[in-house]
Write a structure and sequence with these properties.
Elements: H1 2-20, H2 26-49, H3 55-62, H4 64-80, H5 85-106, H6 112-133, H7 140-163, H8 167-195
Length: about 210
């Protein structure tokens, strides 16, 4: 059941990334945040109630609420035009929690694939904190690009592997591939979208409002 939720986490990350890039209007992104936020409330609640006290199942399911509350918070902010500072500082909480979940996947749960995936999510939620909590608007488009890409590589891909029963055999290669991908792609995007954009000789992009 969690793999179904993960599939739609990929969808909402892609849409929110497209919103930060200015490709999708903010108000049109709100419904998907509500849909996926609600799904990520139902899924872990079901998993916890049917876990029969299994600590590892409850531990894994509890992490899904971090996503649920983020997406519901985003949906409310977009719908009512709220200030994003509170959401930003919640994202700081998620960032720290994601680091802990990453460590637990590498050690207690023996799942290197999701160990690296949680590191990806920790990085993304740190960016959300910087953009929303600390108002680092220069990182908005970069954060959007990272978010949209992570929708595919940390949501869609592992969800399909889980749904087709091939994840267990590919967990280690997936971990290595995602680790290399993250460093190379997100590092390269930072140079192109942030460092080079801030250089005085860099071409100036057209000014347009991007809703966060």
């Amino acid at each position: 059941m969690g793999s179904v939720g993960l599939l739609f986490v990929g969808a909402v990350l892609f849409i929110n990334g497209a919103m930060l890039l200015g490709w999708v209007d903010a108000t049109s992104a709100a419904p998907m945040n509500f849909f996926v936020g609600a799904l990520q409330i139902i899924t872990p609640t079901y998993l916890i109630f049917t876990a029969n006290g299994d600590a590892d199942t409850i531990l894994s399911a509890a992490g899904l609420y971090l996503f649920a509350f983020t997406y519901l918070y985003v949906g409310l902010n977009l719908t009512f035009g709220l200030d994003g500072t509170g959401l930003g500082y919640f994202c700081l909480f998620v960032f720290v929690s994601a680091l802990v979940y990453s460590g637990l996947n590498f050690t207690r749960l023996d799942d290197p694939g999701f160990g690296v995936i949680w590191l990806h999510w920790a990085f993304l939620w740190l960016l959300f904190f910087l953009v929303l909590g600390l108002k680092r608007e220069s990182l908005s488009r970069y954060t959007g690009a990272v978010c949209a890409i992570q929708g595919w590589v940390t949501g869609w891909v592992p969800a399909l592997l889980l749904l087709t029963g091939t994840y267990a055999a590919l967990a280690v290669p997936l971990a290595v591939a995602l680790a290399v991908f993250g460093v190379v792609v997100f590092g390269g995007l930072y140079v192109v979208m942030v460092r080079r954009a801030g250089h005085p000789d860099a071409p100036v992009a057209p000014d347009r409002h991007v809703a966060a």
